[in-house]
Design goal:
This is 4Fe-4S dicluster domain-containing protein. The chain is α+β, with helices and mostly antiparallel strands. Helix content is 19%, strand content 13%. The strands form 3 sheets. Strands 1-2 form a two-stranded antiparallel sheet. A two-stranded antiparallel ribbon has the order 3-6. The longest helix has 7 residues. It binds iron/sulfur cluster (3 copies).
């Protein structure tokens, strides 16, 4: 996905404009991530190159919150796990095998780090993503049917709740 614009910023990232003005491109966030999901962006864009990005298809965020704690410039600010808004996961019911075929997959639900808040099971069976989604991408990563895509917060029109940053 190098070069793609659909990447996620790490948890606690401020609005994209403020994030870019604060990020020192120091890479400490990537170094502290034990899940190796943060990559430093490549390319020739002076402002973007060297800033952290996450591709949930390759390696999602596990919401351990180490990166936002260590960031020296507060480009990632230290927020509660329930306030994280990296993006919003969209579930395509026409692709989901539980919704279409009644198969008890549940992979996304089982891996959601904040299940019963961000993801619920309608009638105890069918996965539904709520407004509390953190956008970590774990559900997108594990879905065997490719039915989930996380839309980065910077591409969303509507603000979800009074949460700061991504
Ligand atoms: S730790 Fe903070 S300042 Fe350093 S690269 Fe990551 S986001 Fe940027
Ligand atoms: S919260 Fe943890 S898993 Fe997620 S990007 Fe930061 S260090 Fe990596
Ligand atoms: S619904 Fe998906 S993207 Fe949202 S918090 Fe749960 S696992 Fe993460």
């Amino acid at each position: 996905m190098a070069g793609s614009n659909t990447f996620l910023r790490p948890p606690g990232a401020r609005s994209e404009k403020e994030f870019l003005s604060r990020c020192l491109q120091c890479g400490q966030c990537a170094q502290v991530c034990i899940f190796d999901c943060i990559k430093m962006r490549r390319g020739f864009n002076f402002f973007m190159a060297g800033t952290p990005e996450i591709d949930p298809k390759v390696a999602p965020c596990y919401l351990c919150m180490r990166c936002s704690e260590i960031c020296p410039s507060d480009a990632l600010h230290d927020i509660d796990i329930y306030d994280v808004r990296m993006g919003f996961a969209e579930l395509d019911r026409t692709k989901c095998t539980t919704w279409t075929e009644g198969l008890l997959c549940r992979s996304c639900y089982e891996r959601c780090p904040i299940k019963w808040k961000a993801m619920i099971l309608e009638r105890g069976e069918y996965p539904v993503i709520t407004d509390e989604c953190a956008g970590c991408g774990l559900c997108e990563h594990v879905c065997p049917a490719d039915a989930i895509v996380v839309i980065p917060t910077r591409f969303q029109n509507k603000k979800r709740g009074p949460k700061g940053g991504a």
